[in-house]
Automatic annotation (TrEMBL):
InterPro entries: CoA-bd, NAD(P)-bd_dom_sf, Rex_DNA-bd_C_dom, Tscrpt_rep_Rex, WH-like_DNA-bd_sf, WH_DNA-bd_sf. Residues 78-179 form the CoA-binding domain. The gene is rex. Coiled coil: none annotated. It comes from the Bacteria. PANTHER family: REDOX-SENSING TRANSCRIPTIONAL REPRESSOR REX (PTHR35786), REDOX-SENSING TRANSCRIPTIONAL REPRESSOR REX 1 (PTHR35786:SF1). This is Redox-sensing transcriptional repressor Rex. One of its GO terms (cellular component) is cytoplasm. It comes from Ructibacterium gallinarum. The keyword Repressor applies.
Amino acid sequence: MEKKVSASVINRLPRYYRYLTDLLSSGIERISSKELSERMHVTASQIRQDLNCFGGFGQQGYGYNVKSLQSEIAKILGLDRGYTAVLVGAGNMGRTFAINTKFESRGFRLIGIFDTDPKKIGTTLTRYTIMDYKNIKEFIDTHHPEMAILAVPKQVIHGVAEELIGYGIRAFLNFSYTELSTAEDVAVENVHLSDSLMRLSYKLLEHDQNEDKKQESEV
C-alpha cells in the first residue's frame, strides 16, 4: 500500500517550488539542503525528510540540482498537467486575484471570467472579456476547465459550487469568506485572509510577551 504523504508536507511544497524558481532566475544551478534551509528558515533535516517522501532527489556531496528539483516538485504538485480554470466573480477580490496572479508560472491557465452584474459583463479584466454567468455551462461543455476560482458572496457560494460540480468542475479555490465543503471527489482550498491576520496578531502578541518577560528579568 502506498504511503500517504501528510498534509503538512504538501503544504510546504509550494514554498519549495517558489524558492527554487527564484534560485533559477538568479542563475543558481545547484544548492545543498543546508544552503536551502538558510534561505527558507527551515531546518535542513526537515527539507530532506519532506523530499524523501517522494524519493529524495539529492546527491551525496553535490546537493540538489535546482532545475531538476523544481521540475520534480512541479510534477508532484501537478503543475505540469496544464490544468485550466475559470474565475466566477469579478468584484474587488476577483479583480485583485486576476490582476496579480501569474497563472502560467503557477502551473495552470485561466481561460474565462464570469459575473452576473450587467455593468461588468462585456468589459475587460486583464486580457479577458467578462462573460455572463448564465452562459457558463456552455463554456464548460466546450472548454472543459477542471477548476473554478470562486469570489462570490458567501450567501450563494454553496449553490454556485453545486451547480458547477454538476457541470463537471472538479476543484475549487474559494475566496468567499466561508467554508466550502463538497463531495470527497471534489478538491477544495478555502482561502481566509482574516486567518492570516489573526496568525500575524498571535505572532506579534508572542513577541510582545517575550519582550515583557525580558524587561521584567532585567529589573
